[in-house]
Amino acid sequence: MKSGLLLAGLALLAAPAHAQLTSAERLMKATVEAEQQRTLGLLERMVNQNSGSQNPEGVEKVAEIVRGELEPLGFAVRWIPLRETGRAGHLVASRVGRAGTKKLLLIGHLDTVFEPDSPFQRWVREGDKGHGPGAADDKGGVAVMIAALRAMQAAGTLRNSNVTVFLTGDEEDPGTPQSLARRDLIAAGKAADVALDFEGLAQEDGRDMGSIARRSVNDWQLTIKANSAHSSGVFSAASGYGANYELARLVDAFRREVAEPSLTFNVGLIAGGTTARLGPGGIRAEVTGKTNIIAGEAVARGDLRALSQEQIDRAKARMQVLVAKPLAGVVSATLTFEDGYPPMAPTAGNRALLDRLNGINRDLGLPAMAALDPLKRGAGDISFVAADVDGLVGLGPSSSGDHTDQERVDIPSMSRQATRAAILMSRLGRERR
């Protein structure tokens, strides 16, 4: 009773400064601020439990922490085990609200890039920063999501909202086959009207930015077989140029002739010599060769990132055309692709969601958020539902040093983001489908 009176009092105090907010929205803002220490306590517990993508038991333990937060809010929580993909699985929580209103899909992830053998394992508070593995990516985002849902519960707006929370256990290192690892997320996207991604808030020059697009990730591999002979005959019609020259020629041709706006082409591994063999997972190579022998084998691996499927298709087609015209002495040149994360194109529906968020920024007295250049953001799970539902990325906190032992979450941004999310979800959730 006392905490309810305190929150009501805080909401009344906030009213003159934010006249465009409803009383429920003022209460949501006050709830987020009053519960900041609780939210940080939850984040600390999650960070201190290792949940590297390849640590299924750890991922499941973080899922249980989250379950304990969502079930008291009226969510029906289920665990989708996916050990057959080499990963733990996914947590899905649903809450049924008023019939005929928009269905919201909230996306985040339980895993981090830090496995149990990493020395980076614990949460440390450093003033307005929280230092720890996954403090931002994405345990900070999960903490913001829960803070927003708790605020909605306190204000009574969660009761009528149709919300599904989908937290993957393998966003940082997806399980295989991908068709199974993302089957349930794709199905959830098809059933939703809006998707909100709680990965980190992007900033430029200290300004919060909105994200309405994410690029794809497609891996490629180029394998060259060529005549191997004495180096004295290199460049001759009989011996040709060898595998290394052909590989170098093609990789540079890709750079010069495939690139276009919003598309990047990376070469992550190159190996070539008399023999060149890739190791398990394609992340290491064993090479033999001598300076006086024309290279007989070469291989390169990399990724391709694009903003639309049409752009991916154009790039693949152009690369294959280049590969089909080999140098003399090349026996075979084979280019293969492996699909990863699909693109999330900057659609009109996504832009409209950012406009809605900027309406909330105006009502909160915060600056408008411009759309982030998608070149400045990596791929993410929301891309798997982007073809079926409008979405917005970056509702988690701002941070620095993600994916390194310098990862730090900006604590003040957590309350700002939770307030934005709570109001956005409440406004969207009462709209008709």
Automatic annotation (TrEMBL):
<feature type="domain" description="Peptidase M20 dimerisation">
    <location>
        <begin position="212"/>
        <end position="327"/>
    </location>
</feature>
<keyword id="KW-0862">Zinc</keyword>
<keyword id="KW-0378">Hydrolase</keyword>
<dbReference type="Pfam" id="PF01546">
    <property type="entry name" value="Peptidase_M20"/>
</dbReference>
<protein>
    <submittedName>
        <fullName>M20 family metallopeptidase</fullName>
    </submittedName>
</protein>
<dbReference type="InterPro" id="IPR001261">
    <property type="entry name" value="ArgE/DapE_CS"/>
</dbReference>
<keyword id="KW-0732">Signal</keyword>
<dbReference type="InterPro" id="IPR036264">
    <property type="entry name" value="Bact_exopeptidase_dim_dom"/>
</dbReference>
<dbReference type="InterPro" id="IPR002933">
    <property type="entry name" value="Peptidase_M20"/>
</dbReference>
<dbReference type="Pfam" id="PF07687">
    <property type="entry name" value="M20_dimer"/>
</dbReference>
<feature type="signal peptide">
    <location>
        <begin position="1"/>
        <end position="19"/>
    </location>
</feature>
<dbReference type="InterPro" id="IPR050072">
    <property type="entry name" value="Peptidase_M20A"/>
</dbReference>
<dbReference type="InterPro" id="IPR011650">
    <property type="entry name" value="Peptidase_M20_dimer"/>
</dbReference>
<keyword id="KW-0479">Metal-binding</keyword>
